[in-house]
Amino acid sequence: MKARRRSRGRRPKDDLLEQADASLLELVDHVLNRGVVVTGDVVLGLAEVDLVYVRLSALLCAADRILGDEGRR
Amino acid sequence: MKGLYVYALVPAGFDASPGTGLADEPLRTIPLGAIDAVVGEMEDRPSIAPPSLRAHDEVVRGIGRASDAILPMRFGAMVLDAGELREGLGPRVPALAASLERTRGCDQLTLRLYAPGAGATAPAPELPAGPGTRWLRARSAHAAIPELARVREALSSLVRAESIETHDAPPLRASVFHLVPRAALGDYRARVESLAVAMPAARVVATGPWPPYAFTELE
Fold it and tell me: Which pTM was predicted?
Protein backbone atom coordinates (compact mmCIF):
# COMPACT_ATOMS: atom_id res chain seq x y z
CA MET A 1 0.00 0.00 0.00
CA LYS A 2 2.83 2.37 0.74
CA ALA A 3 3.87 2.55 -2.89
CA ARG A 4 0.38 2.58 -4.35
CA ARG A 5 -0.73 5.57 -6.33
CA ARG A 6 -3.88 6.29 -8.22
CA SER A 7 -3.91 5.51 -11.92
CA ARG A 8 -3.31 8.48 -14.21
CA GLY A 9 -6.43 7.93 -16.28
CA ARG A 10 -8.82 9.38 -13.70
CA ARG A 11 -8.93 13.03 -12.70
CA PRO A 12 -11.02 13.16 -9.55
CA LYS A 13 -9.82 16.65 -8.74
CA ASP A 14 -11.74 17.89 -11.78
CA ASP A 15 -14.86 16.04 -10.71
CA LEU A 16 -14.46 17.58 -7.31
CA LEU A 17 -13.96 21.15 -8.45
CA GLU A 18 -16.72 21.05 -11.04
CA GLN A 19 -19.11 20.49 -8.17
CA ALA A 20 -17.46 23.07 -6.00
CA ASP A 21 -19.40 25.54 -3.93
CA ALA A 22 -18.23 27.61 -1.02
CA SER A 23 -19.04 25.02 1.63
CA LEU A 24 -17.38 22.26 -0.38
CA LEU A 25 -14.24 24.36 -0.81
CA GLU A 26 -14.07 24.79 2.93
CA LEU A 27 -14.54 21.06 3.39
CA VAL A 28 -11.77 20.30 0.89
CA ASP A 29 -9.37 22.66 2.60
CA HIS A 30 -9.99 21.21 6.03
CA VAL A 31 -10.21 17.52 5.19
CA LEU A 32 -7.55 17.26 2.46
CA ASN A 33 -5.11 19.97 3.45
CA ARG A 34 -4.91 19.44 7.20
CA GLY A 35 -4.91 16.74 9.80
CA VAL A 36 -2.39 14.24 11.06
CA VAL A 37 -0.47 12.29 8.42
CA VAL A 38 0.95 8.85 9.06
CA THR A 39 4.65 8.87 8.28
CA GLY A 40 5.33 6.71 5.27
CA ASP A 41 1.77 6.72 4.01
CA VAL A 42 1.33 7.89 0.42
CA VAL A 43 -1.80 9.97 0.40
CA LEU A 44 -3.88 9.51 -2.70
CA GLY A 45 -1.34 10.69 -5.26
CA LEU A 46 0.29 13.72 -3.74
CA ALA A 47 0.85 15.63 -6.98
CA GLU A 48 -2.84 15.77 -7.77
CA VAL A 49 -3.73 16.76 -4.23
CA ASP A 50 -1.29 19.65 -4.52
CA LEU A 51 -3.10 20.79 -7.65
CA VAL A 52 -6.34 20.77 -5.73
CA TYR A 53 -4.76 23.07 -3.15
CA VAL A 54 -3.53 25.54 -5.74
CA ARG A 55 -6.91 25.77 -7.43
CA LEU A 56 -8.67 25.84 -4.10
CA SER A 57 -7.02 29.12 -3.18
CA ALA A 58 -8.21 30.71 -6.41
CA LEU A 59 -11.68 29.30 -6.01
CA LEU A 60 -12.05 30.56 -2.46
CA CYS A 61 -11.25 33.98 -3.85
CA ALA A 62 -13.68 33.56 -6.75
CA ALA A 63 -16.45 32.34 -4.46
CA ASP A 64 -16.30 35.57 -2.54
CA ARG A 65 -16.50 37.64 -5.72
CA ILE A 66 -19.17 35.66 -7.48
CA LEU A 67 -21.40 34.20 -4.84
CA GLY A 68 -21.53 37.19 -2.53
CA ASP A 69 -23.56 36.65 0.65
CA GLU A 70 -24.93 33.38 -0.62
CA GLY A 71 -21.44 31.99 -0.90
CA ARG A 72 -20.41 33.01 2.57
CA ARG A 73 -21.62 30.25 4.77
CA MET B 1 -5.74 -3.58 -0.90
CA LYS B 2 -7.34 -4.18 2.44
CA GLY B 3 -6.14 -2.08 5.30
CA LEU B 4 -6.98 0.17 8.21
CA TYR B 5 -8.39 3.59 7.47
CA VAL B 6 -7.42 5.95 10.28
CA TYR B 7 -9.96 8.61 11.21
CA ALA B 8 -8.70 10.30 14.34
CA LEU B 9 -6.57 10.16 17.44
CA VAL B 10 -8.26 10.40 20.83
CA PRO B 11 -7.23 9.95 24.47
CA ALA B 12 -6.57 6.35 25.52
CA GLY B 13 -9.57 4.36 26.66
CA PHE B 14 -12.03 5.61 24.01
CA ASP B 15 -14.98 3.36 23.20
CA ALA B 16 -15.31 3.43 19.41
CA SER B 17 -17.68 0.49 19.13
CA PRO B 18 -20.92 2.48 18.64
CA GLY B 19 -19.52 4.22 15.56
CA THR B 20 -19.28 3.26 11.91
CA GLY B 21 -16.94 4.53 9.22
CA LEU B 22 -16.92 5.64 5.59
CA ALA B 23 -17.99 2.24 4.31
CA ASP B 24 -20.31 1.57 7.26
CA GLU B 25 -17.55 -0.55 8.70
CA PRO B 26 -17.43 -0.84 12.50
CA LEU B 27 -14.93 1.42 14.21
CA ARG B 28 -12.39 0.22 16.72
CA THR B 29 -9.36 1.59 18.46
CA ILE B 30 -5.70 0.73 18.29
CA PRO B 31 -3.89 1.69 21.50
CA LEU B 32 -0.74 3.76 21.05
CA GLY B 33 0.19 4.44 24.65
CA ALA B 34 -1.37 7.69 25.83
CA ILE B 35 -3.58 7.90 22.77
CA ASP B 36 -5.88 5.64 20.76
CA ALA B 37 -6.21 5.64 17.00
CA VAL B 38 -9.78 5.20 15.78
CA VAL B 39 -9.76 3.00 12.70
CA GLY B 40 -12.04 1.03 10.41
CA GLU B 41 -11.14 -1.90 8.22
CA MET B 42 -11.66 -1.06 4.55
CA GLU B 43 -11.20 -2.98 1.33
CA ASP B 44 -9.63 -0.06 -0.50
CA ARG B 45 -8.71 3.56 -0.04
CA PRO B 46 -11.61 5.91 -0.86
CA SER B 47 -11.33 8.17 -3.89
CA ILE B 48 -11.19 11.94 -3.57
CA ALA B 49 -14.80 12.84 -4.22
CA PRO B 50 -17.27 15.10 -2.43
CA PRO B 51 -19.33 12.24 -0.92
CA SER B 52 -16.18 10.62 0.50
CA LEU B 53 -14.88 13.92 1.88
CA ARG B 54 -18.22 14.67 3.52
CA ALA B 55 -18.42 11.16 4.91
CA HIS B 56 -14.90 11.42 6.34
CA ASP B 57 -15.82 14.70 8.01
CA GLU B 58 -19.03 13.24 9.40
CA VAL B 59 -17.22 10.26 10.89
CA VAL B 60 -14.61 12.54 12.46
CA ARG B 61 -17.34 14.79 13.84
CA GLY B 62 -19.10 11.77 15.31
CA ILE B 63 -15.92 10.71 17.06
CA GLY B 64 -15.49 14.29 18.26
CA ARG B 65 -18.96 14.30 19.79
CA ALA B 66 -18.03 11.24 21.80
CA SER B 67 -14.57 12.40 22.83
CA ASP B 68 -13.69 15.64 24.56
CA ALA B 69 -10.36 15.82 22.73
CA ILE B 70 -9.60 14.78 19.16
CA LEU B 71 -6.93 15.09 16.49
CA PRO B 72 -8.43 14.40 13.06
CA MET B 73 -6.37 12.49 10.54
CA ARG B 74 -5.98 13.84 7.03
CA PHE B 75 -8.36 12.27 4.49
CA GLY B 76 -6.95 9.11 2.98
CA ALA B 77 -4.68 8.01 5.85
CA MET B 78 -4.56 4.26 5.45
CA VAL B 79 -2.15 1.63 6.72
CA LEU B 80 -1.82 -2.09 6.22
CA ASP B 81 -2.22 -3.05 9.85
CA ALA B 82 -1.74 -1.99 13.45
CA GLY B 83 2.00 -2.63 13.20
CA GLU B 84 2.41 -0.17 10.36
CA LEU B 85 0.37 2.40 12.23
CA ARG B 86 2.56 2.04 15.32
CA GLU B 87 5.63 2.35 13.13
CA GLY B 88 4.25 5.47 11.45
CA LEU B 89 3.04 7.27 14.56
CA GLY B 90 4.92 5.69 17.43
CA PRO B 91 7.87 8.09 17.74
CA ARG B 92 5.49 11.05 17.59
CA VAL B 93 3.01 9.81 20.20
CA PRO B 94 4.26 12.03 23.06
CA ALA B 95 4.04 15.15 20.90
CA LEU B 96 0.71 14.07 19.46
CA ALA B 97 -0.62 13.51 22.98
CA ALA B 98 0.32 17.08 23.87
CA SER B 99 -1.40 18.40 20.75
CA LEU B 100 -4.42 16.27 21.56
CA GLU B 101 -4.67 17.65 25.07
CA ARG B 102 -4.65 21.17 23.69
CA THR B 103 -7.91 20.45 21.82
CA ARG B 104 -9.79 19.32 24.91
CA GLY B 105 -13.18 21.03 25.13
CA CYS B 106 -12.54 23.09 21.99
CA ASP B 107 -13.78 23.38 18.43
CA GLN B 108 -12.07 25.03 15.49
CA LEU B 109 -13.42 28.17 13.83
CA THR B 110 -12.00 29.21 10.47
CA LEU B 111 -11.92 32.79 9.24
CA ARG B 112 -11.22 33.86 5.67
CA LEU B 113 -10.13 37.46 5.54
CA TYR B 114 -10.86 39.29 2.29
CA ALA B 115 -9.47 42.81 2.04
CA PRO B 116 -8.15 45.30 -0.51
CA GLY B 117 -4.45 45.36 -1.24
CA ALA B 118 -1.81 43.37 -3.01
CA GLY B 119 -1.25 39.71 -2.37
CA ALA B 120 1.37 38.42 0.00
CA THR B 121 4.90 38.95 -1.18
CA ALA B 122 6.46 35.78 -2.47
CA PRO B 123 9.21 34.57 -0.14
CA ALA B 124 12.77 34.95 -1.34
CA PRO B 125 13.85 31.63 -2.83
CA GLU B 126 16.67 29.48 -1.57
CA LEU B 127 17.21 31.35 1.66
CA PRO B 128 17.83 29.37 4.84
CA ALA B 129 14.53 28.91 6.62
CA GLY B 130 15.15 28.10 10.25
CA PRO B 131 12.57 28.79 12.95
CA GLY B 132 13.74 32.39 13.39
CA THR B 133 13.61 33.12 9.68
CA ARG B 134 10.17 31.61 9.37
CA TRP B 135 8.97 33.69 12.33
CA LEU B 136 10.32 36.88 10.79
CA ARG B 137 8.76 36.10 7.43
CA ALA B 138 5.42 35.37 9.05
CA ARG B 139 5.54 38.57 11.06
CA SER B 140 6.34 40.55 7.93
CA ALA B 141 3.50 38.93 5.99
CA HIS B 142 1.06 39.59 8.84
CA ALA B 143 2.14 43.23 9.10
CA ALA B 144 1.29 43.72 5.43
CA ILE B 145 -2.36 43.05 6.23
CA PRO B 146 -3.55 45.64 8.76
CA GLU B 147 -7.01 44.07 8.98
CA LEU B 148 -5.41 40.89 10.25
CA ALA B 149 -4.16 42.64 13.39
CA ARG B 150 -7.68 43.90 14.10
CA VAL B 151 -9.12 40.43 13.74
CA ARG B 152 -6.51 38.92 16.04
CA GLU B 153 -6.87 41.64 18.63
CA ALA B 154 -10.66 41.34 18.71
CA LEU B 155 -10.64 37.58 19.22
CA SER B 156 -7.45 36.78 21.09
CA SER B 157 -9.06 36.62 24.54
CA LEU B 158 -11.48 33.93 23.35
CA VAL B 159 -9.07 31.52 21.68
CA ARG B 160 -6.81 28.83 23.08
CA ALA B 161 -4.62 28.58 20.00
CA GLU B 162 -4.24 30.29 16.65
CA SER B 163 -2.80 29.41 13.27
CA ILE B 164 -2.50 31.90 10.40
CA GLU B 165 -1.83 31.47 6.71
CA THR B 166 -1.41 34.43 4.37
CA HIS B 167 -2.38 34.10 0.73
CA ASP B 168 -1.15 35.45 -2.56
CA ALA B 169 -4.66 35.46 -4.04
CA PRO B 170 -6.28 38.87 -3.51
CA PRO B 171 -8.79 39.72 -2.25
CA LEU B 172 -8.27 36.62 -0.12
CA ARG B 173 -5.50 37.83 2.20
CA ALA B 174 -5.39 35.39 5.07
CA SER B 175 -6.92 32.34 6.67
CA VAL B 176 -7.09 32.37 10.45
CA PHE B 177 -7.75 29.17 12.36
CA HIS B 178 -8.82 29.46 15.97
CA LEU B 179 -9.16 26.79 18.60
CA VAL B 180 -12.07 28.04 20.69
CA PRO B 181 -13.44 26.59 23.96
CA ARG B 182 -17.02 25.51 23.28
CA ALA B 183 -18.30 27.73 26.08
CA ALA B 184 -16.93 30.75 24.21
CA LEU B 185 -18.39 29.98 20.77
CA GLY B 186 -21.33 32.36 21.21
CA ASP B 187 -19.12 35.28 22.21
CA TYR B 188 -16.73 34.45 19.39
CA ARG B 189 -19.48 34.62 16.77
CA ALA B 190 -20.76 37.89 18.20
CA ARG B 191 -17.30 39.45 17.96
CA VAL B 192 -16.89 38.25 14.37
CA GLU B 193 -20.17 39.95 13.51
CA SER B 194 -18.92 43.13 15.16
CA LEU B 195 -15.78 42.95 13.05
CA ALA B 196 -17.87 43.02 9.90
CA VAL B 197 -19.31 46.36 11.03
CA ALA B 198 -15.97 47.73 12.20
CA MET B 199 -14.15 46.91 8.95
CA PRO B 200 -16.50 47.83 6.11
CA ALA B 201 -13.77 47.57 3.48
CA ALA B 202 -12.96 44.01 4.47
CA ARG B 203 -14.92 40.81 4.73
CA VAL B 204 -14.43 38.24 7.43
CA VAL B 205 -16.09 34.95 6.55
CA ALA B 206 -16.39 32.47 9.40
CA THR B 207 -17.09 28.77 9.10
CA GLY B 208 -17.36 26.16 11.79
CA PRO B 209 -17.36 24.75 14.28
CA TRP B 210 -14.97 22.23 12.77
CA PRO B 211 -13.06 19.40 14.36
CA PRO B 212 -9.56 20.81 15.02
CA TYR B 213 -8.16 19.94 11.58
CA ALA B 214 -5.71 22.85 11.66
CA PHE B 215 -4.28 22.09 15.10
CA THR B 216 -2.59 18.80 14.48
CA GLU B 217 0.83 20.27 13.89
CA LEU B 218 3.41 19.21 16.41
CA GLU B 219 4.81 21.98 18.55
Answer: 0.80
